Amino acid sequence: MKTMRRTKDKNQNKKETKHSSLVIRWVSIVALTIMVSFVVFSVVIYSFVGRQSIAQQKVTSNGMVVKLNDSLSPISKELQIANVVPALTPSARKIMQGDPAINRDDHKSNAFNDDLLASLTNPDLNVVVYNLEKEDVFDNGNGNSLPPFKKFKNDYHMEQVHRGHRQELLTYQKVRSIRTGKVTGYIVVANKMSYYNGLMKNLLKWMVRISLIAIIFFTFVAFLVVYDIVKPIKEISKVAREVNDDPNSTARIKDFHRHDELEELAVSFNQMLDRMQRYIEQQKEFVGDVSHELRTPVAVIEGHLNMLERWGKEDPEILSESINASLQEAKRMQHLIQEMLDLTRAEQINVHYPNEITTVSEVLQRVVGDMAMVHQDFKISLDMDDLPQDTEIQIYQGHLEQILVILIDNGIKYSTDRKQMNVSAGLSQDDVQIVVQDFGEGISKTEQSKIFNRFYRVDKARTREKGGNGLGLSIAQKLVTSYHGQISVDSVEGQGSQFKMIFPALSKQQAVVLRKRAQAEKSKQA
Ligand code: ADP
């Protein structure tokens, strides 16, 4: 026993863990989504900023190369220290020599200007001029090591290289003499891109930091949100388990005070449990009622058979009496079984007769006519003055007939001296109203609320005499409500009863839709 309980507990724990795994799964998904979004976002931003920044650095390097080339291309001979240094630094020398007269407008005769000096002193740019033998003839001294010379095909070449964790931009330019067009040397500009490298490093650092903070923050928020959702689900499943273990359990989900779908779910779930338990209860009652109802005819038949066995075999009078009585009881049983079947079927209307349409006046005329024919001692009147002839309602006509037969039959069964009944029908707004009125024994106020219950009879013995099982009104009510109608009773004891039904009338369009659906259903079945 103990081990069994332990396994049960274990199973329950297992189920519990499954719920917490839902939290983990949801939170992981949220965290992963945020992480991926941040990574994608960071990559896009990083590469965009990187590309913009590199483009700027390229402009700086190119500007340097162009300025140098402009200064060196007037030299016709191969580039040497002797001709490069004066070409690049004449003014500096003049300044050092104390000559203030710098002819700023004379750009053509002297390629040097302040701009070049400013560029050469840019600590990011390491400028080297090589001669044809690849020996350096000029170096602005901004690098620890000179950028290596590299063979390149065209006059101009640019490449981005890695130096440790840093990126460098190398620009190569062949210097051609303006006069001869021959190559006189090479310019190599190495751009250390300190701003770019610093910017990218910082950007990366901040992006990682922000991403980490965002992931932690959003994961925490996601956890709170998911936990908030999972908690009620856990509560719902706990109640479901309790009811599963004990179908009679009164456990219900507490009010979540959330005003959202989960609260709706909880309310529906509670309603479902109530309904389920009501069904179970009704089912139990039904089985009890049925066995109780069947016990009497079976006992009567058994009694007669016993009597026959003991004395009846030789006595033709007892024999015939007992056989007749048994046959009558068998018939009653058959009737009871048929009514019970009708009652069960009345609960499945929407499955079997979803699109049926009936013209009310036709059915009323037929049923009232038939009943008047069978009970000729009765005067059954039919008043349809307020009912347009083509008024239709959504009901299977066999069922409307059945309801009317039950009500008229009851009126006749429970009649007194006044052998009269009135059946009337009318259309008011969108409702069809059918009233079956008798002037019989009537029903007291307290009984009125019970007569629609299964197997309920006001006077059991008398009703049994009249062949009633107490199922007629239950069947009628089930049928009426299954077709979205209502049935009610108004009665005064000793004066008579009035049973009123209300059905929603079908508009022309609704009737067309239902007919089409019925047609489609029929062709599908064929
Ligand atoms: P039954 O088959 O016994 O008539 P019903 O469900 O039709 O079962 O009716 C239940 C009980 O309600 C009847 O036993 C009867 O006592 C009472 N009842 C029903 N209809 C009428 C009526 N028109 N007048 C008086 N009593 C009625």
Can you describe this structure?
With 526 residues, the chain is α+β, with helices and mostly antiparallel strands. Among the domains are: 188 residues, no CATH class; 173 residues, Heat Shock Protein 90, CATH 3.30.565. The strands form 3 sheets. A 5-stranded antiparallel β-sheet has the order 2-1-5-4-3. Helix 1 runs antiparallel to helix 5, helix 5 packs parallel to helix 6 and helix 10 runs antiparallel to helix 13. It is rod-shaped. The N terminus is likely disordered. The site of adenosine-5'-diphosphate has 23 residues, from helix 10 and helix 13.
Q: What portion of the residues fall into strands of 2 or more residues?
A: 15-25%
Q: Percent of residues in helical segments?
A: 55-70%
Q: Radius of gyration in whole Å, from Cα?
A: 51 Å
Strand arrangement across the biggest beta sheet:
2-1-5-4-3
Derived from helix and strand composition plus strand pairing, the structural class reads alpha+beta
Largest sheet: 5 strands, antiparallel
N- and C-termini, Cα separation: 58 Å
- Overall pLDDT, averaged? 85
Characterize this entry briefly.
The protein is an alpha+beta fold and 526 residues long.
Topology:
Blueprint: H1 2-72, H2 81-88, H3 90-96, H4 114-120, E1 125-130, E2 136-139, E3 156-163, E4 166-176, E5 183-191, H5 194-245, H6 261-312, H7 316-345, H8 349-352, E6 358-359, H9 360-374, E7 379-386, E8 392-393, H10 397-413, E9 420-428, E10 431-438, H11 445-448, H12 460-465, H13 472-482, E11 486-492, E12 496-504, H14 508-525
Parallel strand pairs: 7-9
Antiparallel strand pairs: 1-2, 1-5, 3-4, 4-5, 6-8, 9-10, 10-12, 11-12
